[in-house]
Design a protein that fits this description.
single chain; alpha+beta; five-stranded mixed beta sheet; 11 strands; globular
Length: 168
């Protein structure tokens, strides 16, 4: 093989390798929610809870998430995605992020001594299927602001901090 042919093959391979990350990043979707005790549609007792959650698609189609809520009245007992519902209505749990009911993306919610909950994990197709939730519904609700996240505590079992999920 001539040197010019080898060089051409190497250049083509390098160009292909450089285009792969751009393709992966082009498919990355991000959703965020700002959580607050003030967003709950019922009375919240003894809380100043505020926080945020970020969801990001992985190349395999799963959703990675990171959630932090500070100012909770006590240890978090669970965090969930609810839907479909806008900010003025409640909806059933469609997926557990941490805590109960099982199955959950993360078995337990971690709350530090200052009342701040931290949780991060991955929502994969197995978890979505275990909840009997068509993945396309979850993505549609997240894309249209018709899903929300809330964190629960023993003092506020119906929810202590809530935030609508919206695309970024």
């Amino acid at each position: 093989m001539r040197r010019s042919q080898k060089l051409l093959i190497v250049l083509v391979l390098v160009m292909l390798l450089l285009t792969i990350p751009a393709t992966v990043l082009a498919r990355k979707n991000v959703w965020k929610a700002r959580l607050s005790f003030a967003n709950e549609l019922h009375e919240v007792v003894g809380s100043t809870a505020v926080g945020s959650i970020v969801f990001v698609t992985n190349p395999d189609g799963s959703l990675a998430f990171q959630m932090q809520v500070r100012g909770l009245s006590g240890p978090a007992s669970g965090a969930h995605i609810h839907g479909p519902a806008d900010a003025s209505t409640n909806a059933p749990v469609v997926l557990t992020l941490c805590g109960s009911p099982a199955p959950a993306a993360v078995a337990t919610c971690t709350t530090d001594a200052d009342g701040t909950m931290y949780v991060e994990g991955v929502i994969d197709s197995g978890l979505v299927a275990a909840w009997g939730l068509p993945g396309r519904d979850l993505f549609e609700w997240m894309n249209t602001g018709m899903a929300y996240v809330n964190a629960h505590t023993a003092l506020n079992p119906a929810g202590e901090a809530r935030g609508q999920i919206n695309p970024q």
